[in-house]
């Protein structure tokens, strides 16, 4: 489980499928109000406090984005800080209230430390997926964005191949478009194969 600060009142967690499995939680459980999910959220908030000094009380918005075959991204945004009189009225169990929204991502985004890793990933991926993909450079790394409109088996095999060369990214394509540099805005895989094979 990784956590990063997005702003003063917003943090983002990346939960891998292994993080969920270790706690006996299925992806579908995140949609349910069960003790295991509450325990996971409390563990996340403990980690956020220890690593970032991020404390919550009062209203909290939680956005959960399911990433195909990778895990989940959880964005936590804290609302207003309650006044001391508000705190007097709360029990210990009611220190925060949650507003949860859930979304399924239709993209897989992988990041690579250098361009050569991306080239090798594209070459290995070409047996499964020869077309599609968008490529960005951002903060000294390279990103491959794939839409998930393909057979699940092909998608899972593609993710396994990409994992050998890079790692799943929690950065959204909107951030890459806005702040990164677009290298291939379409057919990135075939572009890489054309120029670097």
Automatic annotation (TrEMBL):
Sorted alphabetically, which Pfam families does this protein's record hold? MecA
Its subunit composition reads: Homodimer.
**Xref: NCBIfam families:** PRK02899.1
Organism of origin is Salinithrix halophila
Q: What is the protein's name according to its record? A: Adapter protein MecA
Q: Known HAMAP family for this protein?
A: MecA
Q: Report which gene this protein is encoded by.
A: mecA
Highest taxon above the source species: Bacteria
Domain description? The N-terminal domain probably binds unfolded/aggregated proteins; the C-terminal domain interacts with ClpC.
Chain's role: Enables the recognition and targeting of unfolded and aggregated proteins to the ClpC protease or to other proteins involved in proteolysis.
What family is this protein classified in?
Belongs to the MecA family.
